[in-house]
Amino acid sequence: MNLVIDLSKNEPCLVLRRESKKIASHQWAGLYQLSETLILEIDKFLKKNKIKLKELKEIKVAPSEQSMVSTRIAKAVALGLKV
């Protein structure tokens, strides 16, 4: 199971994928408040889909063209969750 933090659109989006199949997704407003919302949204999203952090094999980030800071925040969170 893979988690994708997609920042390529106007609103951040979390996507769960198994191989190439999209299982679930979640969007919320707040590209510029990502440092305050990302971890909470990931937690809610995983709980809603009954997925444990241990079950994730990979966490990817699709970068934002609008906000380099948001991309860095997402990459830091992804790296921290992998540990």
Describe this structure in words.
With 83 residues, the protein is of the alpha+beta class. The radius of gyration is 12 Å and the shape is globular. β2 (13-18) and β3 (21-27) form a beta hairpin. α1 crosses α2. The protein has 2 helices and 4 strands. The protein has helices at residues 34-48, 68-82, and strands at residues 2-6, 13-18, 21-27, 58-62. The chain has one domain (2-82): ATPase, nucleotide binding domain (Nucleotidyltransferase, domain 5, 2-Layer Sandwich).
Which features does this protein show?
83 residues; Nucleotidyltransferase, domain 5; four-stranded mixed sheet; 4 strands; 36% helix
Strand order of the largest sheet: 3-2-1-4
- The portion of residues forming beta strands comes to 25-35%
C-alpha Rg (nearest Å): 12 Å
| Number of distinct beta strands | 4
CATH uppermost class: Alpha Beta
Write the layout of secondary structure elements.
Blueprint (H helix, E strand, L loop, with lengths): L1 E5 L6 E6 L2 E7 L6 H15 L9 E5 L5 H15 L1
Parallel strand pairs: 1-4
Antiparallel strand pairs: 1-2, 2-3
What's the short story on this structure?
The chain is an alpha+beta fold. Helix content is 36%, strand content 28%.
